[in-house]
Amino acid sequence: MLTARSGRGRGAAEIAPAAAAAPAPAPAQVPAPVPARRGGLAANRSFRLLWIGESAGKFGTAITSVALPLLATVTLHATAFQVGLITAVQWVPWLLVGLPAGVWVDRYSPRRLMICCNAASAAALLSIPLASVAHVLTISQIFATAVVLGLANVFFSTAYLVYLPLIVPPEDLVAANSRLQGSESSAQIAGPGLGGALAQLLGAAVGPLVNAGSFVASTVCLLLAPEPAAGTRSGPAASVWREIGEGLGFVRRDRVLRLLTVVAALANLAMTAYEAILVVFLVRTVHLAPAAVGLLMAATGVGGIAGAFAAAPLARRLGEPRAIVYSLTATAPFGLLLPLTGSGPATAYFLPGAIVPMAGLVVYNVVVSSFRQRHTPRRLLGRISATMRFLVFGAIPLGALAGGTLGSLLGPRGALWCVMTAALLPALLLGCSPLRRRSALDSVVTPADCAVPEGTPCPG
């Protein structure tokens, strides 16, 4: 995913090599293949519960994506750099624990990890309205909450990518990812608008309270879902570092995954810089009220819904490689309209500048996520997903800090010009890649490279 689930889609920590000498844990689990279901996704109870829970969580998160920056900007009078830092600290945990998180997700139940992460996120978010009511809320507490959300997001999103192919058969993955992306885009339409309105009417601290409730709802849905069936890998689990190396080696050997990782990292660097300065730009440069800021950010979700509906047909018509290439090359240039946004009629520049690139990002996310889930060896899916996200999301704190720094040095409008120009680079890289000449998107790693114990087929 180019941009993770916003706000949810969290001294350097290091696992000592001596961990290899510790008593061997229980044999690691390898997911059993998911049989095709009569009736498709409509008859899949586990997916329905996941979809409902994730829709609730994404709706609450979309509210907080506006509420937290507004709380910092309007209530606590934070600088552009501090607002950017709120975004940055949510992604730093990917650099600290992103790789070992993939190992732990492959070893343990992804569903149970997701439940624990939701509970931690709900507790962290609930602390904000409580502190606000007690008149003790500070920017430091917002930073601390963002760190907790970031840590929870590392494990939740990695487990989520492993959990989905456990409950959905391969032939339904594109449709499942499209529905989940459609829900996220719908939340981006309704959530920010409601978040802005709540901030204006009741105060920005109400947004995190609603988001905490959404995490509780998501947790209930996961508790109602049955534990997916899993097989067992023969032999003891290897050391954490060795298992991390397996994930890194797979991504390094696979030319397609390697290219997609670089493209996504560059895109996230630019897009997170954009997100870090967007609220400051709309409030202090364009002089919009909080409710108007929420409505404009909500309008971006229209592009996401369009992209979710278009992803599967485009992949079938163009082939997955060309759908990926055109998803960015045809839409990224519209981002250059964003810095032209101004008060009055000039506000209209924001709509195509934000909506069209969002549609392209969602098409990219759906096709790439489905490819990775289909073609990655099941026993490595957590590690490979975490490896890609470690490299991709590692660019996000840098982007957020760059956005805040550019906003302080050049002003919000000048920073937007720099950022949206830089956003053309990943599109250019895709346009010059061999993907535009391919009709099918296949992993180049051979079945021998993804050998698993007897009885567990190698996907792809």
- Secondary-structure element series: EHHHHHHEHHHHHHHH
Strand order in the largest sheet: 1-2
Give the distance, in angstroms, between the N- and C-terminal Cα atoms.
Answer: 20 Å
Shape: globular
Low-pLDDT segments, ≥5 res: 3-33, 231-235, 443-460
Tell me what the structure shows:
The protein is mainly α and 460 residues long. Helix content is 69%, strand content 1%. The chain contains 14 helices and two strands; from the N terminus they run E-H-H-H-H-H-H-E-H-H-H-H-H-H-H-H. The chain has a two-stranded antiparallel ribbon. Mean pLDDT is 78; it is low at 3-33, 231-235 and 443-460.
Write the layout of secondary structure elements.
Blueprint: E1 29-31, H1 45-75, H2 80-107, H3 110-133, H4 139-167, H5 173-201, H6 206-224, E2 230-232, H7 240-253, H8 255-285, H9 290-318, H10 320-329, H11 350-375, H12 381-393, H13 395-422, H14 424-431
Antiparallel strand pairs: 1-2
Question: In a few lines, what is going on in this structure?
Answer:
This protein has 460 residues and is mainly α.
Task: For this entry, give a set of tags.
two-stranded antiparallel sheet; 460 residues; mainly alpha; disordered N terminus; globular; 2 strands
